[in-house]
Amino acid sequence: MALEELPNVDSVGVSRSAFGAAKNGFVYRVTFDGAYLVSGRQSDLLVGDTTGCQAVQPPNRVLSFEGAHVTSGAPGFYPEVWEIASTESSGAKVLGGTFDLSIGFEGQWINTNPVVTATVAAGSRTAKTVGSMLGVVNRGDRVRIGGEEFTVHATAPFTDSELPLDSYHVRGVTVAAAIQVMDTALGNVQVSKTSNLVTTSVSFSSRIADGEQVQIDSKVFKVANVAPTSFTLDSLWTDDTTLHVTAFARKKATLSVNAEAAEMKRALSALPGVGAIDVSRIGPTKANGYRWYVTFQSLDSVRLRVDKKTGTTDFVDVYGVACVTCTVTASVVQDDTQTTTLAEIKGDYSANAVVASTEVGGVVQEVQTISTKASADNISGYFTVSFQSVGGAVINFDDTAADVRTKLQSLATIGRLNVTRSENSDFGATWTVTFLSNMGDLPLLVVTAKTLLKGTGVNVVVQEIVKGVDVALETIIDGLDPGQNYYVRAFARNENGYGTSTTDLQQRGRGALPLQTAVSTSPDPPGINGMWPLSGSQLELRLSNPVDHGDSVSKYLFEYAVGESFGKVATKKVFVYNSIENDIAGTFRLQYGDDVTSLLSVHTTASSLQSALNSLSSVRPRDLYVGK
To answer: Are 415 and 478 in contact (CB under 8 A)?
Structure first.
């Protein structure tokens, strides 16, 4: 307790040795187990002196103190906490209305307006558009086609009918699909070097307001003024002049000024890239407002921002009247010990912190064969092949491996292939096709026409040689201890090696799950504390909290059965008898579990026995009937 009163100590655990472990004294072992000081080695040692203390007894004794590092802390992850505060400074009004919260410019996917559709050949980096994307998106913008995401290529040809992509479309799109963009995209703008005026083709006044932020290219600016066909930035555009670049608004969640913590958590969690969060609320405060504390459990650093509802110039009171003394602000919760005394804390792994590392492979490439066969050496002609309902590959009986690869890869549903050719014992050829970019267990290639393949008893057969297996997206980590906190990260690997980890991804604002988690098991069964009727058709049931084994209970499942459908009632017989007629007397007890009834006469009635058994704590009331 004494150590925790120091301003730069958040939490410690202390144990003391037996007397004499140090000369005529004790050894105190101090473990810094708080959120701050546990994270990383601290340069300061604990020191002590007797200044201001009472004189020790006997007078010839001198106290000395010495501190030493025993175990260095390992850097860990400490979540960033933001405080959102609503206040009214005059003390005469109460806040009302709503406010906007946002963390960034990433939006939800929506179709372009007007809708533009496209087809893409599997393995191609060019989308064939039905309608022009010029002026709808610009180079560097993100688009989604057929469930796969891309960036518009920086230099490749961009025309009314072709949209260049930065990477291959793996699956391809054979039936024209709508091109999707972010709903935070305001549209195309023009910017000039050393100018803060941004020219637009349409008005953005319904999407942004003075004082809000916009993102142009990768730069973020504050909007100083919004006009019908332009808006002004708070600083100059320092890059080159460009006539084609997209401006983005922040993705916002609108909340009431008295929103519950659960409401704020739901609204913020719906924003893209927020990851895992926790929200608490206190208030109303003395300033007629509330304070919400938002803990970002999977992001290293965020830019939470509060804005007035777009289209309004002031916050309002409970009557909807503009309130100049009403404010809502967002700021990082600061702690003196975190900023002045402690070593820097960042969510990362030290070199010696990794306890176990497991590589999960699992990718198996699909291999199929196409074989021509005949009963005589006179095969000629050709046949056609389709894949996933897309046909048109004409295979000649004597095509080389390169010919077959080129023809099959021309199908929109097939990506990259490796093909080899060999002669078989049935006077034909076998082409072995390995799928390099189509992942998983694939359907067979289909021979759609073979009437023009000639020969004695000729046939063409497709077989699966190796079943494809997609990359494993799930794995099991075993050997974990219940209740112990674990930090997990993942990497992806291709032929170029491993990329960055999920830790880096989360720190850039793309978090999905808390960096820290704990292994747990399913909870114990809850107890039924009470059950009573509420109405002619309702029954109330009250449960006791079960042991959750490391993970809070999130829901309960109730089941009930009706009448005779609930199994068969158990019947037990109790015999009290004597072989000598009319010669029985005395008392007895019955035991059920650990409970024992009161003394019962051998001549007790059925109702008395029923009452005695139902009075046992281990027997549910009214569950037992006794007949004679």
So the answer is: no
